[in-house]
Each structure stands twice: as structure tokens, then as C-alpha cells.
Specification:
single chain, 342 residues, alpha/beta, Trna Endonuclease, Chain: A, domain 1, 6-stranded mixed beta sheet, 57% helix
Length: 342
């Protein structure tokens, strides 16, 4: 058979395959460049901290840093100005051992590191470092998570900071997220564009229309499985609003939507769904399913008495306005409730 009889290659497939090779190579190169850049910045910060600002040299050290920044800027550009040198020092001070800092070089961009280093409280800073590295947040996403008080909401969902540092360390070492880290309270769904008064059908439809942003709010380990999952018990049909799978916890996650105040019967409803999912949908190697009741309002005493602040079923409030707007509303309401002087 002559070479002329061979079928010509498919142009689209050839283009797609080569494009994929190029994109993967670009990703590897960008990752390598970022790692080298973070290493460089840490080394610069460490050198300045040890040789210029350490011990009793701090009094004149700032002037040395200013002069150094001027010369570096002239030679290498704005990235080596005094403000960025100070960030490098802060980075090296926060992580004096490169063995601890080095994983960040492959997981976080320098921009994300500088955003997180601006956080004063160490536990809060460690939380965002671990979560950002695990979920690969962009600069915009990280800024949004900080502005929307993700750390504070995670604390609220778990009732305090007990064992949080241990769970963050576990996440950093193993890449596995616990349920207490995965769930938060409240969830900020301001991107849904819902009116103040809306139905469960409207809430579900809005979530489906904005699934990508909803998953970003839930966490990147969540994977969408189904809506209105049909569950048959004693020939009676029930429908679970939303069903997800969490890769880190290795379990199904049933989410029931309530556009009203949390009620005791909600727990029994989700318990039925979980027992059914455990029997008929759970695959070998998976953990038992867990549930989330996403409601418009809930009281802390009722949530505690029902045991919905921990365990296999949790209740969380959702907000259709941003956290900042909600905090301002509550502050205004609190001020308005104060007694007024005559």
C-alpha cells in the first residue's frame, strides 16, 4: 500500500491535540515561574530581615531598605519598590523556615500571598493560606472570600475555634477537608439576584442558573449531582432539592432549601433522605451521606437543641445581600433600638 493512500489527518483533532499540549506546557511554565518568583521574594525578604532589620539595626534599617528599593527599582522595575520589599520581609518573617514556606510557592501566587499577609491575626491568616492553596482561588476570589468574612462564617458554623488550627494543619498536610471546614454559616448568595421575598422554586432556579458561582460559595470540592432527586418510600414520592458530592469527604451531600424560618420537621425530612441515600445511592468506599438545610432564617437555640450545628445534618442561613450590607443593616437596627435622649 502506497503512502498516498493513507487517510489525511483530521484538522480539528490535530489542532485540538496540539492546543492541549501547548496549554499544558504553558501551565507548567507558569507554575515553575511562579515558584521561582516566590522563592526569590522569600530569599530577598530573609536577607533583609537578617542583615538589615534584625537585632538593634532596625533604627537605621528602614533607611537602608529605602535606598535599596530605589536602586533595585531603577535596575529591575516597580516590583522591587519599598512597599514590595516590606512585603517580602513580612513573608520571610511569617515563614522563617523555607521548608514550611516552600509548599506555598507551588500553590499560591505572590499576589495572593501578599493579600493574606495583610491579615494580622495568625489563625485567620493560616486559615486563608490553607483554603486558598487547597481550592486554588484567584486573586479576585480570595479578595471576595475575605470581604465576605469566610473565616468568621466558618467559626460561626462550628460554634467557635475549637480544633480549627488542628483541622487547618490536617488540611495542609493531607489535602483532606473535614465537614467542620466544609460547611459555614451563613452562605452568601447575593449573586442570585433574588427579590427579598421569593419562593423555593425561584431559589432553586436561581442556583441552577448560577451553578458555577454557587459551587464557588460552597467550596471547590463540591460536585453537582442532581436536582429534585426522586426518592420513593412506601410508594410515596419525595423530591430532594439538590444533591452534591464532596470529593474530600467522599460522600453525598443532600441540600434542602427553605425560604422560611427553620422548623423542627425539616430535620426529620432530611434524615429520611439520608437514610434512603445511604441504602440505595452510596457506593463502596464512600462515607455516609450528610445533609444541609439551607434556610432563610434560624434561631441559635433551636439549632443547638435540634443538634443542627454539628453532626450529619447541619442548618445554615443564606443571605441574598452581601455580608457587608447585612452587617450594616443589623448595625442600623441596633442603633435604632437604643433609647434616645430627650
Amino acid at each position: 500500500m502506497s503512502g498516498d493512500s493513507l487517510a489525511p489527518p483530521n484538522d480539528d483533532n490535530l489542532f485540538s491535540d496540539i492546543s492541549d499540549l501547548i496549554e499544558r506546557a504553558r501551565t507548567r511554565v507558569a507554575s515553575q515561574v511562579n515558584s521561582e518568583l516566590v522563592l526569590l521574594y522569600w530569599t530577598i525578604g530573609k536577607r533583609i530581615q537578617d542583615e538589615v532589620l534584625g537585632g538593634e539595626r532596625g533604627a537605621y534599617g528602614q533607611e537602608v531598605v529605602r535606598r535599596l528599593a530605589d536602586r533595585l527599582t531603577q535596575a529591575y522595575g516597580r516590583g522591587y519598590g519599598q512597599r514590595n520589599l516590606e512585603r517580602m520581609v513580612r513573608f520571610a518573617s511569617a515563614f522563617p523556615d523555607w521548608d514550611i514556606a516552600s509548599p506555598l510557592a507551588s500553590q499560591l501566587t505572590w499576589t495572593n500571598i501578599t493579600l493574606i499577609l495583610a491579615i494580622e491575626e495568625e489563625p485567620k491568616r493560616d486559615f486563608y493560606l490553607a483554603m486558598c492553596a487547597h481550592e486554588r482561588w484567584s486573586k479576585r476570589t480570595l479578595r471576595s472570600k475575605i470581604d465576605d468574612k469566610l473565616y468568621e462564617r466558618t467559626l460561626a458554623a462550628r460554634g467557635g475555634d475549637d480544633d480549627l488550627e488542628e483541622e487547618i494543619a490536617y488540611l495542609r498536610e493531607t489535602g483532606v477537608m473535614t465537614a467542620d471546614l466544609a460547611f459555614r454559616d451563613p452562605y452568601v448568595l447575593d449573586f442570585l439576584g433574588l427579590d427579598a421575598v421569593h419562593s423555593e422554586a425561584q431559589l432553586e432556579r436561581a442556583i441552577l442558573d448560577e451553578m458555577q458561582r454557587f459551587l464557588l460559595e460552597l467550596g471547590t470540592d463540591f460536585c453537582f449531582v442532581a436536582r429534585q432527586k426522586r426518592i420513593v418510600v412506601d410508594d410515596q414520592d419525595y423530591y430532594l432539592d439538590l444533591l452534591f458530592y464532596h470529593r474530600g469527604m467522599k460522600c453525598l451531600v443532600a441540600i434542602e432549601l427553605k425560604t422560611r424560618h427553620l422548623q423542627p420537621g425539616d430535620k426529620s425530612q432530611v434524615e429520611l433522605y439520608l437514610r434512603w441515600l445511604d441504602r440505595y445511592e452510596r457506593l463502596p468506599g464512600e462515607e455516609p451521606p450528610v445533609g444541609l438545610i439551607l434556610c432563610a432564617k434560624k434561631g441559635p437555640q433551636q439549632t443547638e437543641l435540634l443538634g443542627l450545628d454539628h453532626g450529619e445534618i447541619r442548618a445554615a442561613q443564606y443571605l441574598t445581600a452581601s455580608v457587608r450590607e447585612e452587617m450594616q443593616r443589623r448595625l442600623s437596627a441596633a442603633v435604632g433600638a437604643l433609647p434616645q435622649d430627650d
